């Protein structure tokens, strides 16, 4: 039986109600239980849980209270550009110039609500072509939310 020392959860607010129940039980008692074919087995774990989420207010209050909550400030413009350049140049094979162009333009559109994932989408749609980048950005300005 695998007994993880740590559990890392991203987008914790997207967990199903069943998984939230299991997580809450684990964090409250250190015990998880499983019922199959009418038989229940329990496992005691010494596990630490780390989770990240944006809309954690959707989670049950008793679960939220089991975490130490940390709030991080949004990216500054320069941080957003640097992170976007790193992500796009390494993960999407985008030139640093195009990555910076995408990031700066998105920042102008959304400022602190700018999202690196949207930079990735633009890079993928444009396939490194500056004209396509501009076309995607024009469409975002016109039709984007």
Structure description:
With 145 residues, this protein is an alpha+beta fold. It has two domains: 6-64, no CATH class; 77-143. The protein contains six helices and four strands. The protein has helices at residues 17-29, 61-64, 77-91, 96-110, 116-126, 130-143, and strands at residues 6-10, 31-36, 39-44, 48-52. Strands 1-4 form a two-stranded parallel sheet. It has a two-stranded antiparallel sheet with strand order 2-3. The radius of gyration is 21 Å and the shape is elongated.
Write the layout of secondary structure elements.
Elements: E1 6-10, H1 17-29, E2 31-36, E3 39-44, E4 48-52, H2 61-64, H3 77-91, H4 96-110, H5 116-126, H6 130-143
Parallel strand pairs: 1-4
Antiparallel strand pairs: 2-3
Helix pairs in contact: 3-4, 3-5, 4-5, 4-6, 5-6
Briefly, what is this?
By secondary structure, the chain is of the alpha+beta class. It folds into two domains: 6-64, no CATH class; 77-143. The chain has six helices and four strands, in the order βαβββααααα.
